[in-house]
Amino acid sequence: MKPLLTGMLPDELAVYLAMKPEFRAKQVFEWIHKGITSFQEMTNLPQDLRESLKDVPVLSSEISKEAVSEDGTSKITLKLYDGSFIESVLLIDDTDRKTACLSSQAGCAMGCTFCKTATMGLLRNLTAGEIVEQFLHLQAKYGNISNIVFMGMGEPMANLDEVIKSIEILHHPKGQNIGLRKITISTSGITRKIRELANTELPVRLAVSLISADESVREELMPVAGKEPLKQLKESLIYFQRKTKKRITMEYVLMAGINDRKEDAIKLRHFVDDLKVIVNIIPWNPVEDLPYQEPDEKTVNSFITMLEDLSIPVTKRYLKGRSVNGACGQLAVLQNSSDSSDTSRT
Ligand code: SAH
Ligand code: SF4
User: Fold this and answer.
1) How many CB atoms lie within 10 A of CB 307?
2) 91 neighbors 73 (Cβ within 8 angstroms)
3) How far from chain centre, in Å, is Cα 36?
4) Could you tell me which of 30, 134, 145, 309 has the fewest CB atoms within 10 Å of its CB?
5) Is residue 190 within 8 Å of 212, Cβ to Cβ?
């Protein structure tokens, strides 16, 4: 596969396109990030340069499907250069702020038992350009985006180099100029990579799918926990926090009868001691054939009250995007089907 223009910073474009003077590459970078998809339309480039590049594709992916839910959440399915499919989601909050929920991999190898993406297994890592293109497609369709969360398909820490590269590109002032503090990386808890991210000293936010602070429950739900016990996870979070001084989000997918008991709240209290966190309660989104039940409203509220009584800062994630299967943990696409409307249903 050829390197993608969307995966390059201006100086890399200059080298790749052999551009002289170099400011031409900056212009190309600016056009790409304004959403222009052909060299013909880059009107401040000399005519002969535009002509010579006219057959060079700017994007490697295309939208094959779009679904808009009544709550304003939109999901796009992208077809990649090799025929694989991924999904990306646009979330709009009450203040009209738009957040891109990006995928870092096609599928996921982590095998969490409650997550639909896990059922696909891992097809491959995405390149930085493929990550950036998700943002470009979403922005072209829905307008200016201010925030990014790596909470789509895949485990960002298992593809950290490309994720960081995409962040550098999306942060570049001549392009999207997205603030690093407005970018959140969500991980199931690969501790070596949490430390590696901390060492970059990028002030991005970290979210951790804790799910349960009970060792055996977590192990049952998340194979990664079998290799990386809670103690090890916590040490890596303390390290991250020492380096970045940032509050960490603990994602707690609440499943009825699994992790909603008083003792679960108490274990959570112990886990977050010595950490500055906010716990995000995400009522489990139903996934067909998975043996879990979404908690009813009463259960969700009483668990939240238990956490509040234990002085744990807590928020609840809205159940957005369900009608388009674009809510957390509902992303999965049947691959290489001639009809991408085969998006599996929940
Ligand atoms: N792999 C990363 C990021 C992608 S998953 C991670 O695990 O953090 C994004 C979020 O969706 C995570 O918080 C995950 O715990 C949550 N999630 C997975 N399946 C879910 C489901 N069925 N219902 C609600 N949230 C789910
Ligand atoms: Fe992968 Fe995250 Fe789903 Fe676990 S919850 S299978 S890490 S996408």
Assistant:
1) 19
2) yes
3) 24
4) 309
5) no
As to burial, measured by CB atoms within 10 angstroms (0-12 exposed, 13-18 middle, 19+ buried), residue 7 is buried
Q: State residue 2's pLDDT score.
A: 83
Residue 197 maps to a domain: yes
User: Confidence band (pLDDT; 50, 70, 90) for 153?
Assistant: very high
Query: How far apart are alpha carbons 173 and 79 in whole angstroms?
Result: 28
The CATH number of the domain holding residue 273 is 3.20.20.70
Could you list the residue range(s) of the whole structural domain that residue 303 is in?
A: 188-317
Active-site residue among 87, 133, 155, 228? 87
Provide the domain count of the chain: 2
Indicate the DSSP class of residue 83: S
Spell out which residues line ligand 2, taking CB within 6 angstroms: 108, 110, 112, 115, 117-118, 154-155, 188, 209
Q: Quote the tokens at residue 248.
A: 């960490």
In short, whether 87's Cβ falls inside 6 Å of ligand 1 is: no
Q: How many beta carbons lie within 10 A of that of residue 324, not counting itself?
A: 21
Whether residue 165 lies inside any domain: the answer is no
pLDDT category of residue 346 using cuts at 50, 70 and 90: very low
Interaxial angle between packed helices 191-200 and 230-244, expressed in degrees from 0 to 180 and rounded to the nearest 10: 0
Is the whole-model pTM more than 0.85? Answer: yes
